[in-house]
Design a protein that fits this description.
It is built from 18 helices and 16 strands. By secondary structure, the protein is an alpha/beta fold. The strands form four sheets. An eight-stranded parallel barrel has the order 1-2-3-4-5-6-7-8, surrounded by nine helices. Helix 13 links the parallel strand 9 and strand 10. Helix 1 (33-46) crosses helix 2 (60-69) and helix 1 packs antiparallel against helix 12 (277-287). The longest helix has 18 residues, at 510-527.
């Protein structure tokens, strides 16, 4: 990241996303490999500069993720592997963690090292000089073998307050070893902006390597601290989508990015990409199986909502009276709690993305928007289920083909012995152009059995369904009803080896919700245009 310090004439800030590692370490979040790959592609399309994939070798999931991630053709972002400096008892060339980074295939590495004397004494239990060698050796070794190497100066601010001489020597060791960027970390999240800015200013007078900021949110100041660091010349901001992360989370990039863009006049991505900020936020929340925070600035459902009285009266005359930016700038929309308005622009953009022309039917955009709102009242969400949303659009345009009719299905889930796993079997009866097919299949669980039975029945009529596989399955209990009588939302990810798509279903019955999502997955595949065979 060969960049000079930000100035009034050079305001480009580099965005470093660590959702796939820090976010995955959040309580109640556990991304699958498929989730991480989908988020990687989404964040790349959104416009991130660097995307940290995780800690290769830390677990089988992350190892498998890197094996597939390095084969993706990212449009802009650079895939980054995370790891520690070498261990005290061995050289960098023989350190297993560093070797795992190299084997990951990522072109960029971020190494975390101790800069707080407390950690050197209590955690590492090595002399200060050995800690400096660990930092320098590790960075120098990887610099010869990778495109870029960043140094995360862990607990830097606490370390600087405790022992400024050692903390500075640590990042000087990283600079001398050739680090492309030195990231100052508020790992415990306890700093306040004024004090943090003063330390960054003092460090900037000594260190000439570009600086970054990595702030945790334990004092609810991660975004403020990140922006304060930028004001002192930092050029890289590390954070996560929706602020996910350990304990209280990390700097929320969904707030950092628009604050940079609109409040500090420091562009970090084109305006057209920033319009997909809310969609990106909701997409990650859905895959993280988290309920989006309605009060979240910029991207929350209530960020531009107005209730009765003087607010509504004023906003209808001039939105600037109660809105600090136009909601459309971040992909959100203005909401009046009595009657929703706007939203057609989002519908039209989605239609273009799907290759559908809404102009062919008068009032199509309004009809789709009304239908979507009705479905959302029932619990449907389409941010992470584009395939289902495309089918909704096709239906409104009269372009959704009915490939089959359900005659009926039955699912048996039986546990025969206490020590054995349950046995699942599904029977499906469908009708295709007057022909009835009655098929049964087993599966690893009732949904898998239902999926197998449905595709088995349909493959006789539509052979191309043979390549379809259910890749991921998520269930969320919706905040309605009581206990086991609540509605559930099912999100299914399917793939055929070359493409992947997601569908959604909602019901008080988990099997029925799953059936809806499965049917959408199959019908979406059947609507796809077969890829043309290459000429030989």
């Amino acid at each position: 990241m060969k960049k000079k310090r930000a100035t009034s004439t050079d305001k480009r800030i580099v965005l470093y996303d660590s959702t796939l590692r820090e976010g995955d370490q959040s309580a109640h979040i556990n991304f699958s490999k498929e989730d991480k790959l989908r988020i990687l592609e989404k964040l790349d399309a959104f416009g991130m500069d660097y995307i940290e994939g995780g800690w290769p070798g830390a677990n089988p999931k992350d190892t498998a993720f890197f094996q597939e991630a390095v084969r993706l053709k990212l449009k802009k972002a650079r895939l980054t592997a995370f790891g520690m400096t070498r261990r005290p008892d061995r050289s960098a060339s023989r350190d297993p963690g560093i070797q795992t980074i190299l084997r990951s295939g990522a072109p960029v590495a971020t190494l975390v090292g101790k800069t707080w004397d407390l950690h050197v004494k209590e955690a590492l239990r090595v002399p200060y000089e050995e800690n400096l060698r660990m930092i320098g050796d590790s960075i120098a070794f990887l610099k010869k073998r990778l495109d870029e190497v960043f140094f995360d100066a862990e607990h830097f601010f606490d370390g600087y307050v405790s022992n400024p001489n050692h903390a500075l020597r640590c990042i000087q060791a990283a600079e001398e070893a050739g680090a492309d960027c030195i990231i100052l970390c508020d790992t415990n999240g306890g700093m306040i902006p004024e004090r943090l800015a003063k330390i960054v200013r003092e460090v900037s007078s000594v260190i000439k390597t570009p600086l970054g900021i990595h702030a945790h949110n334990d004092s609810d100041l991660a975004v403020a601290n990140s922006l304060a660091a930028v004001s002192e010349g930092v050029v890289q901001i590390q954070g996560t989508i929706n602020g996910y992360g350990e304990r209280c989370g990390n700097a929320n990039l969904c707030s950092v990015i628009p604050n940079l863009q609109f409040k500090m006049d420091m562009p970090c991505m084109p305006k057209e990409r920033l319009r997909s900020l809310r969609e990106c936020s909701r997409f990650v929340a859905e895959l993280a199986n988290q309920i989006p925070d309605r009060q979240r600035p910029y991207v929350g459902e209530n960020a531009f909502s107005h209730k009765g009285g003087i607010h509504v009266s004023a906003v209808t005359k001039n939105p600037r009276t109660y809105e600090h930016i136009p909601p459309e700038a971040v992909g959100n929309q203005r909401r009046f709690l009595v009657s929703d308005v706007s939203g057609k622009s989002t519908i039209n953009e989605k239609a273009k993305q799907f290759g559908l022309d809404l102009r062919r039917k008068k009032g199509a955009a309004q009809e789709i928007m009304d239908t979507m709102k009705e479905m959302e009242k029932k619990g449907y969400r389409y941010e992470g289920a584009d395939a289902s949303f495309e089918l909704l659009m096709r239906k409104a345009l009269g372009k959704r083909q009915k490939f089959f009719n359900l005659v009926g299905f039955r699912v048996i889930d039986e546990k025969r012995e206490e020590k054995e796993p349950p046995y699942s079997e599904a029977t499906v009866m469908i009708e295709v152009e007057g022909r009835v097919e009655h098929t049964a299949a087993e599966g690893e669980g009732p949904v898998n059995a239902l999926d197998n039975a449905l595709r088995k029945a349909l493959e006789k009529f539509y052979p191309r369904l043979g390549s379809v596989r259910l890749m991921d399955y998520k269930v969320r209990v919706l905040p309605s009803g009581e206990g086991t009588g609540s509605h559930v939302r099912v999100l299914i990810q399917s793939g055929d080896g070359t493409r992947q798509w997601s569908t959604v279903g909602v019901s008080y019955n988990i099997i029925e919700a799953s059936w809806q999502a499965l049917v959408d997955a199959v019908e979406y595949k059947l609507h796809m245009r077969p890829k043309r065979a290459s000429k030989t």
